[in-house]
Specification:
Chains A, B, C, D: Pfam families: ADH_N, ADH_zinc_N. The structure is a homotetramer. By secondary structure, chain A is of the alpha/beta class. The first copy, chain A, has helices at 38-45, 98-101, 142-145, 148-161, 176-186, 200-208, 218-224, 239-247, 271-276, 291-299, 305-308, 318-326; strands spanning 2-8, 11-16, 26-35, 60-68, 85-88, 91-92, 112-113, 125-129, 133-135, 168-172, 192-196, 213-215, 229-234, 249-257, 267-269, 280-283, 309-313, 332-335. In chain A, helix 4 (148-161) crosses helix 5 (176-186) and helix 4 (148-161) packs across helix 10 (291-299). The model of chain A has no long low-confidence stretch (mean pLDDT 97). The complex binds NADP nicotinamide-adenine-dinucleotide phosphate (4 copies) and zinc ion (4 copies).
């Protein structure tokens, strides 16, 4: 089959590899759509601490079942059979480490993920454990279904943040994740949501999606709302932005660190203020018990998928697609291996 | 001034009473709009355990400051002065009982409330403690502002329920409160919200406000969604409905008892099921730390006030207004004493 | 090997069965100690809706590894090897159902458990998935380690209840579970814990373990503390007791239904009171992310294991051991198959 | 009456001032015992941002009612009368600011407190609002009751931290507050609690109170427990300690910033780690809905008051008492104005 392969950091090609075949508890999937995200760029750049090379990337995907592993019961719980359409939660867990055993499977000490440590979906076919497959309702396209994974990260962020009805929000970063978080916040209890980004085209998208106000800096937002916001979310991963985001938290409010900063980045915070204003800071990492809710949110129309899905390219154009992402063009760029 | 007066249960009249004058820490308010709710009917019927007679009812109101009490600083925190427009949280708390001292002021052991135990706002003027007044932004009408109180009850309900992003909802009852809860749920994390009512005109309103599906019985809803809903809210107060609502809770899900059943009503539940499916049942009573959030939610456009505000009548038509409410016509009926 | 076998409801014998051998991802365990609990009586009586016959019961156990399955890595995460001492979480989860995928594995729709649907530990040997084994520290005896399972149920109860520092408690039922919950409450934030049981010998045990007060009825407890308790726990499973426990909840307080009532039992509650006093009712079922915490609590000395471990009998005396349990003699009765 | 007076920063004396008389809603209290804490040292040093001079300090106190204000009903809710013994929550709230109105009264924007902005209890008499008085049970001494205030701060810390049954703890700082937090943690769900302090005499006290292990640095604690602790509490207020405390948080764990760092102090944290390990950081400030729970915890024997109460000096020795505190001698030093 054809696949995008990163042989070593920096070296990407689209080439031919042997067709995969499903293990006993696996499904073989014909990939319908696979999104590109920052993680893919990190794997290519060689600054992912977890990636293994060579690797076929691609972890945001949906497709059609073309074969069932030998252990997969014909009357399986999900009614999956050849022809079924599915989305896949790409993170695998060991089930044995302390994190897995205490309900924090997303923090598993033995990280493995399709598209990061195992062959991913930037290919015609991919194998996946049936335990990670979700059957899709008929009215969801495979392109929409390939959005479930990023949405499920944003849902995990909302679960960690645990906002209350009426909270005011500030979201820093209006990339794909910021725009998803914006929608979840607007339909997640917010009375109003301000959005900050340096890229004004993205702010325009935020306004179209319902942002109450948009700004090119957090200082500007604070000028309008000097006592700050109940809930502040960083969706940039830029350390100085996170530091400013901290200043924008209202007394008794919360800061969600959703963006992925560099490992060596540091933020400088006032511990007096955390104490004196009872500020809470929380982190959110990938997907935890949030894939099904994300699927439901998309089906329920909470996410405006049409606004999120911009370019869709064939597998052979994978390098060009990466360039779109690097340049920040559009929102979610996807590869459709069947094109 | 003119006021509606309930002299004793069953006896209501619109008559003249002396103008009130504000105590030292009070404001005198010219009432702009005052909503009618079930509590007013209970006070009239004589089945409110807390009402004192004779009483001027009216606890859902907004108006204009016409005089300041002698202790009210001219540079008060809210910048209130003669002419300011305000909404008022009607529940007063003693500050000394165990509930007040442990953060449950809505459960104060010495219940007092404007319009229930103290003269209310079905009158030209009413006095209110400044501590209970909220300054209104210019773009909010007094009719909209008189909705803050019922919205703040619904917000308290959402805070008690504490739903998570992606939860599925079932709401029983599409009266004023059910329709408010519907809107808060749709913008409070829900992936979809089913609504049940026996009154199909109200179901039509629920659909217009975004309900995913509507039904005339909970059984019908369960036929479509046999494993139940993550969050079920009773907004009828009808005991058999609450019992059915319990059956509609999904494993690990929650039931919010928001409706006010009769004191002597009983529901029969399976304790095995509560254990075996880890069901949670919670109650929500009036307003707790939710008036400002409600104001913010209305200002932020989360509540469609136009759909909620139906009849508006002059004070002299108070009895006619009560009839509208009793007949379930429209949604929120208000008295505008200035008409 | 020798094992206790329930061939059909009511028919129990100790007999010889073939030695089990571990599957690829399993361990073979020589059982050191196995506790008896109400579930075993239910399996014997034939009123367990989930048991399969014939069955070797026994799900509260610890022992020594005597063989490793073919897939178990020699350098496994837990450093388990032949001779390692382990306790086992007996509940197996499917990993694919909606409950498993949303973090409620204890509510798995495909219930399977060692000692209930699969051969258990009332035998010389038992096989267990390595994913369910926990390595024991040297200072824990196998008898103490066989307590981890019931403690982990009680810990799940505390996690569901989520009490706050300073809460007052009432616990109904001073059997094994009530006495464990008493200890967890006393070291779980309680300012005081009252205990109710009809059996005064058990109340004496509760007092020795630190109960602030003990009573033979909930009414008596309420006579001393008329406004009720912040946290009330039913650990009897008796429907009329659960109803009374509800009356003992303070305004804004919580009721944990931990006891297992009969499937057809019903409790009659006032929905007005749940609303008006903002009462919360929660259920707690088995073990969720609580086995490791239970192990840690026992190692930390939070549980007085000496007070909990009463009779220890050889496997051949299994019937006699069941009688002790039925008669409510002592606290935890264990079988030591190696005796 | 005699009182300790701080006329200006640095200038303290014990002198005579006019006897206070209670306002309408106040009580006049004869002070029985008043503790000294770091706040008093800050007021004396002039580095309290909120103190007003001249000031009679003293906010941790209990005493006897000697007169009732004119509004105080003889049949008041607390049954307070001349001769009643009371403890007092010293923080006053405005009731009108956004924090007061959303349930965060401890973060009131108009800070006022007995002993900080209003005359305190380092005097023979002090006046207090009845709303802040708590009646004492007979078996509590006034010295013990003067501990309720610091305990209620620690209880607020535990409420903010919201630990779960079985959590492992590390507490940095074994001063009065660290030792109180230690006791609340040991009886607040902890399976084990490690304590770190540079002062080994204090570590000895921590061990006597039940600390599982003690260390003179956080690094040592991490050497024993390399994966860190579920709950880490800073009770030093020292910025470098808080930074290290952050490193001691286990994946998915929490850090409570309880110690009061200097306003200008900064800590440097890895935002990547907060994200990647889903770390939570929370602050806790003074008393919120925690005075009654603290009273209950002391009455319930959860706090070993005998170990906490060291020196007790007469009012005339206030300067000597301050020296004891500055030198870190003993634990809680109190002034008994009646000595
Ligand atoms: N927690 C999780 O589970 C999770 C999951 C997925 C992604 N993430 C992280 O979430 C973050 C956002 O992801 P994404 O896919 O949305 O990335 P993205 O498309 O690159 O969006 C980031 C946005 O932040 C803007 N930005 C950069 N510097 C800024 C500044 N100084 N002030 C304001 N805005 C600034 C960027 O503008 P320019 O484009 O002009 O630079 C861009 O619009 C990333 O760090 C990603 O790694 C986290
Ligand atoms: N918790 C709080 O703080 C709070 C605050 C305000 C109100 N409440 C309570 O909330 C409830 C709703 O208030 P509301 O103002 O919205 O009252 P409402 O206008 O009377 O609405 C109740 C709705 O439930 C419907 N209903 C009655 N029986 C039903 C049944 N068997 N099945 C389905 N629907 C049924 C009613 O239909 P019909 O009109 O045809 O009977 C009506 O549409 C009341 O109990 C009220 O007391 C609680
Ligand atoms: N939620 C979970 O995960 C979980 C886990 C394990 C067990 N459980 C359940 O927890 C409950 C307790 O288990 P256990 O092993 O401790 O059982 P147990 O030893 O039978 O203890 C129950 C205690 O309640 C007492 N009791 C019975 N009727 C009473 C009444 N009317 N008033 C006061 N006390 C009364 C019993 O006294 P007598 O002995 O005199 O009747 C007995 O001392 C059971 O229902 C069990 O099924 C739940
Ligand atoms: N959040 C609140 O509501 C609240 C309420 C009250 C107090 N506080 C704060 O809580 C903190 C503790 O109060 P406290 O009364 O217990 O103070 P304390 O008696 O001074 O105790 C602090 C302890 O930390 C030790 N320490 C100092 N530097 C250290 C280091 N590098 N490593 C380890 N230990 C170190 C001190 O040792 P040495 O004595 O040898 O320096 C002392 O034993 C203070 O910051 C106080 O302001 C907060
Ligand atoms: Zn793992
Ligand atoms: Zn009160
Ligand atoms: Zn399952
Ligand atoms: Zn305030």
């Amino acid at each position: 089959m054809r696949a995008a392969i990163i042989d070593t950091p920096g070296c990407i090609r689209v080439g031919s590899v042997p067709d995969p075949s499903p293990g006993p508890d696996e499904l073989l999937i014909r990939v319908g759509a696979c999104g590109i995200c920052g993680t893919d760029l990190h794997i290519l750049a060689g600054d992912s601490p977890v990636a293994r090379y060579p690797i076929i990337p691609g972890h945001e995907f949906a497709g059609e079942v073309v074969a069932l592993g030998s252990n997969v019961a014909l009357d399986n719980d999900l009614n999956l059979t050849v022809g079924s359409r599915v989305a896949i939660e790409p993170n695998l867990t060991c089930g044995q480490c302390e994190m897995c055993r205490t309900g924090h499977e997303n923090l598993c000490l033995h990280y493995r993920a399709i598209g990061v440590t195992l062959s991913g979906a930037m290919a015609e076919y991919v194998t996946v454990p049936i335990a990670k497959a979700y059957a899709l309702p008929d009215n969801l396209t495979l392109r929409e279904a390939a959005l479930i994974e990023p949405v499920s990260c944003a849902v995990r962020g909302m679960h960690s943040l645990n906002p209350r009805s009426g909270d005011t929000f500030l979201i820093a970063g209006a990339g794909t994740m910021g725009l998803l978080l914006l929608q979840l916040a607007l339909k997640g209890g917010a009375s109003r949501v301000a959005v900050v980004d340096v890229n004004t085209r993205r702010l325009a998208r935020a306004e179209n999606l319902g942002a109450s106000r948009t700004y090119t800096s957090i200082q500007q937002a604070l000028a309008d709302e000097p006592s700050g916001f109940n809930c502040v979310i960083d969706a940039t991963g830029v350390a100085p932005v996170i530091e400013q985001a901290f200043t924008a938290v209202k007394r008794s409010g919360k800061l969600l660190i959703f963006g992925v900063a560099a490992d060596e980045a540091r933020i400088s915070l006032s511990p007096f203020r955390i104490y004196n204003e009872e500020i809470t800071i929380v982190g959110s990492m990938a997907v935890l018990a949030s894939f099904q809710p994300a699927l439901d949110l998309i089906c329920g129309g909470v996410i405006d998928t049409q606004s999120m899905l911009t370019a869709a390219l064939p597998l052979e154009d994978f390098t060009r697609a990466l360039d779109l992402v690097k340049r920040g063009e559009g929102v979610k760029t996807q590869i459709l291996p069947g094109l």
